[in-house]
Amino acid sequence: MASLPTESRQWQLARHPATYPKLEGSDATFEIAKVPLPALNEGEALLRTIFISNDPAARVWITGEKAKPREYVPPVKIGDKMRARSLSRVIGSKARKLPVGTVVLASGGWAEYFTAREDECIAIPQDSGYDLPHYLGTLGVTGLTAYYGLVEIVEAARDDVVVVSGAAGATGSTAVQVAKKIIGCKKVIGIAGTDDKCRFVEGLGADVCLNYKSPTFYEDLSRATEDLADIFFDNVGGDILDFMFTRLRQGGRIALCGSVSRYNNLSEKASFANFDNVITQRLKINGFVVLDYLHKLPTVIQIFQEAAKEGKIRVDDDSQTLVPAKFEEIPGVWLRLFEGRNQGKLVTKLLV
Amino acid sequence: MASLPTESRQWQLARHPATYPKLEGSDATFEIAKVPLPALNEGEALLRTIFISNDPAARVWITGEKAKPREYVPPVKIGDKMRARSLSRVIGSKARKLPVGTVVLASGGWAEYFTAREDECIAIPQDSGYDLPHYLGTLGVTGLTAYYGLVEIVEAARDDVVVVSGAAGATGSTAVQVAKKIIGCKKVIGIAGTDDKCRFVEGLGADVCLNYKSPTFYEDLSRATEDLADIFFDNVGGDILDFMFTRLRQGGRIALCGSVSRYNNLSEKASFANFDNVITQRLKINGFVVLDYLHKLPTVIQIFQEAAKEGKIRVDDDSQTLVPAKFEEIPGVWLRLFEGRNQGKLVTKLLV
């Protein structure tokens, strides 16, 4: 057995980006640092990163403090390791529940190696028949977000007409399948950014998926929601959310999951022409954060594995975008999220 | 008995105001017309207006159509009688339940006389010991709005810290009393527009009331909500709503009752610097319209009469602003709503 590493490279936050994060130059957002790995205490393991989850919300964490209460997750400060969920393999262990070789889901961040306590790790089955990275996507926190957003936050039911934005993305593509195939909603309308993505979303079960870059998008969406929708599952915010205030029936429900259209311009105000409809149409807007439901992850993995067996949920190569990347390329892969370059969950496969 | 009138003067919408309604000149918003009163059919009554309710929402009804679904109440069209709830006295009747002399709550509008079917009228007790105009305010739809907004829409409970905007206004002043005296909420914070109004609101039971025109308002509100609030009952919208997105604890609830700060500028977008907090703080925004609860009016009148007897709710001269006015002055009295000139419910007493 080779000797264990005693230090690790990690990507740290170099400065808060004002708008779009920069990969290079004197004002680069991130920087590489080499840090020593602490000796393991009882109950701890040493882990090697194998797959990294790429999440739009991470853009919010690096924005810098604002003068308002933040009880979400603490911001990533300058000099901190960049935070991310990842799958990693135990290569050294003083934790009974984490023998060497175990693969775990943990918040390993953008690092080659890290240490963690066993209560910070969720062991992942390696014999399930599903490729590991799906445990960062449909069979992981992404699936949890889509499932609990629809089932608990807006209580979607069979009678409901559901609109999903960011429908080709990780959460959106899962939400489409949960709505149509697991809950059995009457009609599911996706919104995505290219015609190819729209066909992908329709392949997942959406009755129709509309390209928001089309010049006829708003007419198309009005037609698709001719009888008005019951639920809007929103990952995008901005103008699409604003328009949807006009396309929900009385008492319509909005699951506010994300606001990716704004993440690179958080200092700009969110402006809505139709916010008054929230009153006149008696809308219910529910912000939610999946962290509140992490204890339900094992349950949702079970539900999704069953659904996948029955062909209701796709857990395959097309339902994720897996990008092999060297350590140096980690930030660039993450930025693809904001370039509309992923279909399904965007996962970095860290090359050694 | 004098012969019954066969025609009535009424205020009609002359044109949609772009911003602030105009009382006079060639672009006046309203105009007086004389209309014949139809002969009574079986089940109908002829009514003489005695008190008119003044409501901010009426500003929305005269805005003109926008390209969005409106299922609230139909807009008032050009040439239509201006809509308003009023108390009126039956002066002619072919309705068994409405003998001459009965006082009713109905949607009589800005008219001296009108006819209505008996199912459009709610008879008001004349021997309750309360002055009649209170049945347009605390003992009427205003009270219903405050009560059901807090009790049903955001399920306020004793443990909750509640912030109420427009707290010296009709709905706000009642909401403050419902929260503090009927529900018994832990802390009630009012927001109003003058120091005098703030003292009035504190007299109603608010733990503190803050003047939003004070240069230290936002600091004051931050201090008053140091431990963050659970509920925001909002009548105002705009910058105060925006700031409150930062002053609610995780899972905080907003009852979106009105948006009076915007009613004269509805074509401007609603802009929020802190809308992202709806996600990060898992806020629940609930738009509501009291019309959905009109069937509960008798119940709430009962609750409020009981509460008034126990000294929990003020139903007196100070809890309303009663303005005697000639027919010609009706629009001008209504506009006081937008000038911050009323305390409690603003009621027009129509002089004959």
TrEMBL record, chains A, B:
<keyword id="KW-0560">Oxidoreductase</keyword>
<dbReference type="InterPro" id="IPR013149">
    <property type="entry name" value="ADH-like_C"/>
</dbReference>
<dbReference type="InterPro" id="IPR045010">
    <property type="entry name" value="MDR_fam"/>
</dbReference>
<protein>
    <recommendedName>
        <fullName>Enoyl reductase (ER) domain-containing protein</fullName>
    </recommendedName>
</protein>
<dbReference type="InterPro" id="IPR041694">
    <property type="entry name" value="ADH_N_2"/>
</dbReference>
<dbReference type="Pfam" id="PF00107">
    <property type="entry name" value="ADH_zinc_N"/>
</dbReference>
<dbReference type="InterPro" id="IPR036291">
    <property type="entry name" value="NAD(P)-bd_dom_sf"/>
</dbReference>
<dbReference type="Pfam" id="PF16884">
    <property type="entry name" value="ADH_N_2"/>
</dbReference>
<feature type="domain" description="Enoyl reductase (ER)">
    <location>
        <begin position="25"/>
        <end position="348"/>
    </location>
</feature>
<dbReference type="InterPro" id="IPR020843">
    <property type="entry name" value="ER"/>
</dbReference>
<dbReference type="InterPro" id="IPR011032">
    <property type="entry name" value="GroES-like_sf"/>
</dbReference>
